[in-house]
Each structure stands twice: as structure tokens, then as C-alpha cells.
């Protein structure tokens, strides 16, 4: 019994995937629809049921106010961080949202935080894996953009917990890609990974050395990706429609959603064609028709893709490397399918990129490799070890609002730094510390990770206390802070509360809420299964009525069966699975004699006591349960 | 509002007795290596040691960086948290601490300048650039990154600052004088050459330090230390000047 099955999950802006290590190689686990990609779309249907993935996509167009996509852009962020996002994306924030509070998104009449919405996606992936293994899955490695800050990482970890997954490790996406890629190659050298996804851009430079994957430098932009291209095209189309048809559709969310779908299709088409047609139905019987050539498209997107150049150059500089020193170049993310992007990268690194692995799947495959390593490894991953870095410098605010950097970016993690503090007033019991992340000189320009107080300092004269504060970034890139007053030896552990994060209590209550959903899911499934079983027995009964055995029953028996049949049909229409099961049982009992009569006399003795559905050996009697009931923990 | 003040910078202060290779493993009880058990491979509880001791190195400044890298990879394969993901919580904690110590030590020692600064701090020297008190005082008075000008550079620096000031003023008006830019460019080149020669000179003192016998007098040790401190200060001063030039010329 392998209870320790650890899966690798790529929780993407546009699509999410789950993979695991099957023998020597990682494979993606498909969903029930047979597809590897689960679109990162979450919708609330009219019955307030959560729908995820392909099934949720139609809600984006039909009931956009009940659906959400690209939620990853809001992970670990605050209201003031996302003003730009709100201009470009149809995120519906809760009306009563207060400044400084964790964001909440409205779906129908309900509101959810970004980690909860991500958790719905994770739970779908978990379910897909459980269906695949026919066993519970509780442990996972989840990938994050390398350039994610502490708050964004913490939010991802919270999402995992809410989904009922123990997140053993957060792995940086480009690093995961390098793992998947390096698995077959097993060679030494310098690898650059260029990862342009739906909403995030990362570049990482790694040194491969006998199975050790040492990240030398990483850089990126957590708000740059295919989404930006889509938004630009949508804006142009809306402007065109206003100019040509004199129709302002910018506030019509259904039309905008239709335009969005059309421009995405056009974008994809232009990766393989030199021109494509936009043809969109508009209100008032109007149409928007336009041809876009690849040339025009490339001109339009140039400013967006040019934004990846700076981070690439910085990463090279931080790794002290010239482009010629890069041995291999790996492309990751759907947006790297765009020929113009490929050309740009090839020029930047003066090298033809590798494209042999599917850019949509390579990150999840790498996560599966890391999951295997954490699970104790196998022959395929023997000697493989990932040494990743922190993408951003960690600092604390000192006098004058200046950031004092204590762990520099691109430091191999785990990494730590120790600072010493003292009191300034006699008997001072608290010392306030402001932790920052970022490269800028002034504290106000860096990301505020947390403010916390060192409390309970024993009374001493000013300057006597000597408080040792240890900052430690773990292998997930998440910060831990501990403090100790050295004179009294008093230890006080401090959990860093991200400035825009959920508290532990909030996460706990969300886990409980999610059980409600899980239970709801489970209940739904039980109803469906019970109904299927009812269908089977009712069909068998129909068959029985046509058999000669039916004529051998007394009219009382027939009346009784008819009554029971009616009762089951009624129960089947309700949502109570136990009532359905009960009606099935009673009908089974009531039809036992019929079942016996139906049997060939030669074997009837052997079949004494058999029930209706068992006696019917025809098709449809099989009520297998291929779906593992694993969500119910 | 800051209620606090930093009184010391990032160093590992307490130096324990090096490599207690004879201690026994908490898990299997046999003889063990310093950071992990050579018999059962389990990570051992970390002890606070300085970075040289962590790698079992003497406090010397010339070191074989290829050897250091090999050692780093070797120890990573024993200490990294990925390898104890299935161990109990206590072992996971040890592995986290041990590998962060390993990474901190490697990061410091692999870079020759950081290595020199670290060794000097272990020797009790407060480097001017590292002296937070001085830096913070400068910052509090609005003079960010103020440093004491090395006397022999005074004249040059004065001249350069005048020119940079002039260029800044010109840029504000949307014009720039090509002759001035060329002049500043020349000075930048000179500074860069000086920087190189200071680095070369520093290397000389590394070897001098390493040649000191174990029983060298405090006087002779101090002489080498002071020279290195002086060179490091000039070096960082020039580096900041070049950065200032780049800022003005590029913007």
C-alpha cells in the first residue's frame, strides 16, 4: 500500500495540471474528460455548486458574474497592488471589502478569497489524481513562479491546505522545467529557462552538475504574460467597435467575454498562420469583422514581449555570464509558442531554443520529479538535487525609511541572517520590526512582508537588552523569523504574518468550509450513484414484466410490486440518496420471488435468495464505482 | 517610527570548538562526521561554528574554489531538507538549519571579497563600510551612503563631483555637453583601472596573511589586517564613485 503517493501540481494562471512519476518518467494525469489541461477557471452554477476547468468555461460567456479566471494574478496581493489588474480583468471584488483586508471575489451571491478559489482548482486536480490512482492523494509539490514573493508563496501554500493537501514543497516553475528537461539529458552545463506563461514571466539560469541543479540567478515579472497580449487585443477590438459600429461594448461583460475568446483564438492561429480573421457577433445585429496579419500582430505585441529582455539581461549579469556561455536554452509556457517570442529569445541568448517538451506540461512534469525526490527518490532521480535561490532580497527597515538588505537576491535557499536589536528606553518591553522584500533603496518602494513586535522583553535599562533575531528563508522560499533575548535567554518564536495574507485561524476555518464543499460534492456523487442503481433495477423490472415468470405471480404480488416501483420512481426524483437506496432495497425484497421464477428451474435452487438486480444478468446490471470516494476525509 | 536600533551586523559570533568528529550519532551511536553521521547518514544537530570551521578550513584567504564547490555539493547531498522530507520534525529542523548554515558559509567564502571581509570581522575588525552605526548616522542626517574620502583621492573626487553636478544640471535643462561626458568617461576609466590595481594589491596581502605563522605576534597580524581594511575601503569607495557616474551618465 503506497499511502505516500506525492503528486506534482502546476497551478497555472491559465491552465493547471497534475502529474506523477510513473516508473522512470513523469506523466500528466488526465481529467475525467481525458484532457491533461484543467483550465484555471472556477464558476458557481445556478445551484451554487462549484464548477472547475473545461466545464466552467462556458460560464465565462454565459454568466460572467458567476465565473473567474486568472485568479493567480491576485494571489498574495492587496487592494492597492491590483489597481492595474482591475482595469484589465473582470474581477468582481466583494462590495464590502476593506483596505488592508485579504481580497474577496464575488461569484454569484458568494465571495471567496484568491486562495479559496485556487483551492477549488487544486481540489479538482486532487480528484483527478484520486480517480486515476483509485486511492486518496494528500501530499503534493506545487509550483510557483520563481519571482513570486513571500506573500504570494504563502497564499499558494494556504490554497493547498484549504484543498486538503499537505504541500511538501513549493518549487519554482522554471526550475521544475529544468528538472523535467534534465531528467533525460543527464549532462553538465549551463541552462537558461525562459518561461512566459499566461500571467507570469520568469527567467532562471542553472548550473547542472552531476545531478545537482544549482540555480545561479533568477529574475522575472509576476505580472507579464499571454493575458497582457489578450488584453491589448481586446482593447483594440473594443475601440474598433466603438469607431466602426458606434457601439460601446466595454461595459457589456458578455460581449467582452466573447471578444476575449475570439482574440485568444486569433492569437493562437497566428502562431501557425500568416493571417487570421476576427468575426464577432455584436448586439443590435451588428458584426465586428477584421483581418489580422502576423506582421501586424508582431508589431502590436513587441512592447509587451520586450519587457522580458530586462529581466533576462539582469539574470545573466547576476550569474556573471555572457550569453555565449549558456549551453542550453529551454522554453516554457504557452506564450513561447509565438514565433516572435522564439525569435527574441534566440537573439537574446544567441542560441536555438529547445522545444522538444510540451511547454504547457513541462512544469508539471518537473514538479512530479521533485515529488519523487522528496518521496525518497527512485533509480531515475537518484543523485538529483535541486538547489534553488530566493528571487528577491530580504530587508528590514532602518532609521530614515531605508531598506537594510540582510539576505541578497539569488542567495541559495535555505538561507539565514541574524540581526541584533536593543531597546532605546528604560523598561521598553516591545521592539517593532518591519520586514521588506525587494531591491529598492527605500522601504516604501519595497514590498512590505510583515510588521511584527518582539514582545515581553524583560525590564532593563535602555540598551541593555540584546535581542537576537534570526531570519530564515526555507526551501520553499518562505520566511521564518525567530527571536531570543540573549541576556534572559527568553525565546519567543514569531510567525511572520504576511501583510496581505490569511491568518492561521482564517485558513483553518476555510479548511472547514471546504469540507462542506467536499461533503456537498460527495453527497452529490452518492445521489448520482443511487439514481444509477435505481435505473438499473427499474430496467430489470421492465424486462421481468415481459418474461413468462410475470404471469406466475399473483395479482396481489403484482400490485405490491407496482406500488414499490412507484415509490422508487418518486424517491429517484428527490436528492436524498439514502431514501433512494431504501426504496431500492424494498423493491429488491418485493421482487425476490419474481427473480426466482425468472431463473431457469435447473439453476433456481442455486439462486435461492438472489435479488432482482442480481438475477438479471443482462447488460446494465454492473454498478461499478470507478471513482474513488477519496474526497471524504 | 522605529523603536529600535541595530547594534551589530550579520555575523556568526559564537565560535565553538571545531569538528568534534568523535562525538557519537544521536541515531545510531557510531562515530560520525561533523554535520552528518558517516555511518547512518543522519543529519546531526547543528552547532554554532564560524564558516571556515564549518567547511573544516583554516582561516586563510587563498582557497581552492573548485575544491570548495565540490565540498559544497557533497555536503548539500547530505544536509539539504529535500533529503529529510520524510524524517521526523526534529530532523527536518536540523536539516533546515544545517543547510542554511552551509549555504550562508558557501556564499560568503566563495566570493574573495566577502571572504576577506568575513575573516576581518572574525578577527574583530569593524569595517567602515560594515559599520552600521556610521551608515545609519549618515542616513539619518540625509547623507545616504556617505563615506570618508581616502585622503589621496580627495582632489580627484572633488573635481569629479563638480563635473557630475554640472552634468546633472545640464540634463535637467535637457542638454548635455559631449566634451563634459567624454571627460567624465575618461575619469571613469581611470577609476576602473585603479579599482583593478587595488584588487591586485589586495591579493598580495591575502598571501601575506596566509604566510603568517600560527605564533605570529599581534603586531604583525594587525599590520596585515590594517592594510587589507584600507584597501577594501578604497575599493568600495571607488566602486560607489563609478556607480554614481553611471547613474548620472545613463539617466
Chart the SSEs and their pairings.
The complex is a heterodimer of chains A (633) and B (251).
Chain A: E1 6-11, E2 15-22, E3 25-28, E4 38-39, E5 41-44, E6 50-52, H1 54-62, E7 67-69, H2 83-88, E8 105-107, E9 110-112, H3 114-133, E10 139-144, H4 150-162, E11 166-172, H5 173-185, E12 189-196, E13 201-209, E14 212-221, H6 226-245, H7 253-269, E15 275-281, E16 287-293, H8 294-306, H9 309-318, E17 328-332, H10 339-349, H11 362-374, E18 385-387, E19 394-398, E20 402-407, E21 415-422, E22 431-437, E23 447-454, E24 467-473, E25 479-485, E26 490-494, H12 504-546, H13 555-572, H14 577-590, H15 592-598, H16 601-604, H17 612-615
Parallel strand pairs in A: 1-10, 10-11, 12-17, 14-18
Antiparallel strand pairs in A: 1-2, 2-3, 2-4, 5-6, 5-7, 8-9, 12-13, 13-14, 15-16, 19-20, 19-22, 21-24, 22-23, 24-25, 25-26
Helix pairs in contact in A: 3-4, 5-11, 6-7, 12-13, 12-14, 13-14
Chain B: E1 5-8, H1 51-54, H2 65-79, H3 89-110, H4 112-122, H5 132-140, H6 154-172, H7 178-211, H8 218-250
Q: Would you kindly provide a written description of the structure presented here, covering whatever features stand out?
A:
The complex is a heterodimer of chains A (633) and B (251). Chain A has 633 residues and is α+β, with helices and mostly antiparallel strands. Chain A folds into four domains: 6-224 and 307-387, ATPase, nucleotide binding domain (Nucleotidyltransferase, domain 5, 2-Layer Sandwich); 226-305, Actin, Chain A, domain 4 (Alpha-Beta Complex); 394-502, Substrate Binding Domain Of DNAk, Chain A, domain 1 (Sandwich), CATH 2.60.34; 511-615, Substrate Binding Domain Of Dnak, Chain:A, Domain 2, CATH 1.20.1270. In chain A, 37% of the residues lie in helices and 24% in strands. In chain A, strands 1, 2, 3, 4, 10 and 11 form a six-stranded mixed β-sheet that branches. Chain A has a five-stranded mixed β-sheet with strand order 17-12-13-14-18, with helices on both faces. In chain A, α3 (114-133) crosses α4, α6 packs across α7 and α13 packs antiparallel against α14. Chain A starts with 5 loop residues before the first strand and ends in an 18-residue tail after the last helix. Mean pLDDT of chain A is 85; it is low at 615-633. Chain B has 251 residues and is mostly helical. Chain B has two domains: 12-110, DnaJ domain (Helix Hairpins), CATH 1.10.287; 146-250. Chain B has helices at 51-54, 65-79, 89-110, 112-122, 132-140, 154-172, 178-211, 218-250; one strand at residues 5-8. The model of chain B is unreliable at 1-21, 129-134 and 142-146 (pLDDT under 50). Chain A binds chain B through residues 4, 168-169, 209-210, 212, 370, 373-376, 383, 385-387, 397-400, 402, 404, 406, 411-424, 428, 430-433, 441, 466, 472-475, and chain B through 1-12, 73, 76-77, 80-83, 85-86, 96-97, 99-101, 103-104, 106-107, 132, 136, 139-140, 142, 144. β21 (415-422) of chain A pairs antiparallel with β1 of chain B, so a sheet runs across the interface.
Amino acid at each position: 500500500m503506497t499511502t505516500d503517493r506525492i503528486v506534482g501540481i502546476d497551478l497555472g494562471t491559465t491552465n493547471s495540471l497534475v502529474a506523477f512519476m510513473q516508473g522512470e518518467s513523469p506523466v500528466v494525469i488526465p481529467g475525467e474528460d481525458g484532457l491533461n489541461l484543467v483550465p484555471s477557471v472556477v464558476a458557481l452554477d445556478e445551484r451554487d455548486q462549484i464548477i472547475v476547468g473545461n466545464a466552467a468555461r462556458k460560464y465565462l460567456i454565459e454568466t460572467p458574474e458567476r465565473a473567474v479566471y486568472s485568479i493567480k494574478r491576485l494571489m498574495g496581493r492587496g487592494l492597492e497592488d491590483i489597481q492595474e489588474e482591475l482595469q484589465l480583468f473582470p474581477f468582481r471584488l466583494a462590495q464590502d471589502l476593506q483596505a488592508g483586508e485579504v481580497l474577496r471575489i464575488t461569484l454569484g451571491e458568494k465571495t471567496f478569497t484568491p486562495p479559496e478559489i485556487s483551492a477549488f482548482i487544486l481540489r479538482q486536480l486532487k480528484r483527478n489524481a484520486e480517480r486515476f490512482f483509485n486511492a486518496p492523494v494528500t501530499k503534493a509539490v506545487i509550483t510557483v513562479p520563481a519571482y513570486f514573493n513571500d506573500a504570494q508563496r504563502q497564499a499558494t501554500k494556504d490554497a493547498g491546505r484549504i484543498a486538503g493537501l499537505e504541500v511538501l514543497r513549493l518549487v519554482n516553475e522554471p526550475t521544475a522545467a529544468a528538472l523535467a528537461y534534465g531528467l533525460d539529458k543527464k549532462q553538465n552545463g549551463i541552462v537558461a529557462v525562459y518561461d512566459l506563461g499566461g500571467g507570469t514571466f520568469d527567467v532562471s539560469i542553472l548550473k547542472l552538475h552531476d545531478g545537482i541543479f544549482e540555480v545561479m540567478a533568477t529574475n522575472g515579472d509576476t505580472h507579464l504574460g499571454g493575458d497582457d497580449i489578450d488584453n491589448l487585443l481586446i482593447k483594440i477590438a473594443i475601440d474598433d467597435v466603438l469607431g466602426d459600429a458606434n457601439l460601446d461594448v466595454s461595459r457589456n461583460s458578455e460581449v467582452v467575454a466573447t471578444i476575449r475568446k475570439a482574440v485568444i483564438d486569433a492569437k493562437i492561429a497566428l502562431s501557425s498562420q500568416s493571417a487570421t480573421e476576427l468575426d464577432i457577433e455584436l448586439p443590435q445585429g451588428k458584426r465586428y469583422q477584421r483581418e489580422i496579419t502576423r506582421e501586424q500582430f508582431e508589431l502590436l505585441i513587441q512592447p509587451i514581449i520586450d519587457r522580458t529582455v530586462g529581466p533576462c539581461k539582469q539574470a545573466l549579469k547576476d550569474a556573471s555570464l555572457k550569453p555565449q556561455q549558456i549551453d542550453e536554452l529551454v522554453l516554457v509556457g504557452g506564450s513561447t509558442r509565438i514565433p516572435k517570442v522564439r525569435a527574441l529569445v534566440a537573439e537574446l541568448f544567441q542560441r536555438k531554443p529547445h522545444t522538444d517538451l510540451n511547454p504547457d506540461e513541462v512544469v508539471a512534469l518537473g514538479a512530479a520529479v521533485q515529488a519523487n525526490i522528496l518521496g525518497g527518490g527512485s533509480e531515475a532521480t537518484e543523485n538529483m538535487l535541486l538547489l534553488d535561490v530566493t528571487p528577491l532580497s530580504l530587508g528590514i527597515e532602518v532609521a530614515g525609511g531605508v531598506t537594510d538588505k540582510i539576505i541578497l537576491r539569488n542567495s541559495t535557499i535555505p538561507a539565514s541572517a541574524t540581526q541584533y536589536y536593543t531597546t532605546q528606553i528604560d523598561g521598553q518591553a516591545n521592539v517593532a520590526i518591519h520586514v521588506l522584500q525587494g531591491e529598492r533603496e527605500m522601504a516604501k518602494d519595497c514590498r512590505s512582508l510583515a510588521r511584527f513586535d518582539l514582545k515581553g522583553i524583560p525590564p532593563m535599562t535602555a540598551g541593555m537588552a540584546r535581542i537576537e533575531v534570526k531570519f530564515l528563508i526555507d526551501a520553499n522560499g518562505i520566511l521564518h523569523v525567530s527571536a531570543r533575548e540573549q541576556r534572559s535567554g527568553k525565546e519567543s518564536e514569531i510567525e511572520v504574518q504576511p501583510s496581505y495574507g490569511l491568518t492561521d485561524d482564517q485558513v483553518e476555518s476555510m479548511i472547514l468550509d471546504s469540507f462542506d464543499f467536499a461533503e456537498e460534492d460527495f453527497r452529490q456523487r452518492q445521489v448520482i450513484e443511487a439514481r444509477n442503481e435505481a435505473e438499473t433495477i427499474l430496467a430489470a423490472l421492465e424486462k421481468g414484466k415481459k418474461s413468462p415468470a410475470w404471469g406466475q405471480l399473483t395479482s396481489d404480488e403484482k400490485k405490491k410490486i407496482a406500488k414499490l416501483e412507484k415509490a422508487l420512481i418518486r424517491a429517484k426524483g428527490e436528492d436524498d440518496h439514502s431514501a433512494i437506496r431504501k426504496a431500492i432495497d424494498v423493491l429488491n425484497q418485493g421482487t425476490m420471488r419474481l427473480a426466482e421464477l425468472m431463473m431457469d428451474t435447473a439453476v433456481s435452487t442455486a439462486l435461492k435468495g438472489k435479488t432482482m438486480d442480481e438475477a438479471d444478468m443482462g447488460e446494465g446490471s454492473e454498478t461499478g464505482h470507478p471513482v474513488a470516494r477519496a474526497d471524504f476525509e | 517610527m522605529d523603536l529600535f536600533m541595530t547594534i551589530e551586523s550579520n555575523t556568526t559570533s559564537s565560535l565553538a570548538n571545531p569538528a568534534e568528529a568523535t562525538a557519537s550519532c544521536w541515531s545510531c551511536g557510531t562515530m560520525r562526521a561533523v554535520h552528518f553521521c558517516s555511518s547512518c547518514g543522519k543529519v546531526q544537530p547543528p552547532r554554532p561554528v564560524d564558516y571556515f570551521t564549518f567547511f573544516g578550513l583554516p582561516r586563510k584567504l587563498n582557497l581552492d574554489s573548485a575544491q570548495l564547490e565540490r565540498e559544497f555539493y557533497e555536503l548539500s547531498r547530505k544536509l539539504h531538507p529535500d533529503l529529510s522530507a520524510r524524517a521526523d520534525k526534529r530532523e527536518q529542523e536540523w536539516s533546515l538549519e544545517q543547510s542554511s548554515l552551509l549555504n550562508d558559509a558557501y556564499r560568503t567564502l566563495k566570493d574573495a571579497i566577502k571572504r576577506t571581509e568575513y575573516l576581518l570581522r572574525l578577527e574583530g575588525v569593524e569595517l567602515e563600510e560594515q559599520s552600521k552605526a556610521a551608515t545609519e548616522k549618515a542616513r539619518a542626517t540625509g547623507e545616504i551612503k556617505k563615506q570618508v574620502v581616502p585622503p589621496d583621492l580627495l582632489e580627484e573626487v572633488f573635481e569629479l563631483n563638480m563635473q557630475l553636478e554640472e552634468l546633472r544640471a545640464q540634463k535637467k535643462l535637457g542638454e548635455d555637453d559631449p566634451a563634459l561626458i567624454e571627460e567624465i568617461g575618461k575619469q571613469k576609466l581611470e577609476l576602473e583601472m585603479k579599482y583593478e590595481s587595488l584588487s591586485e594589491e589586495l591579493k598580495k596581502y591575502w598571501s601575506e596573511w596566509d604566510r603568517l605563522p600560527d605564533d605570529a605576534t599581534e603586531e604583525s597580524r594587525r599590520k596585515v589586517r590594517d592594510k587589507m581594511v584600507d584597501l577594501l575601503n578604497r575599493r568600495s569607495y571607488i566602486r560607489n564613485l563609478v556607480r554614481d557616474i553611471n547613474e548620472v551618465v545613463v539617466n
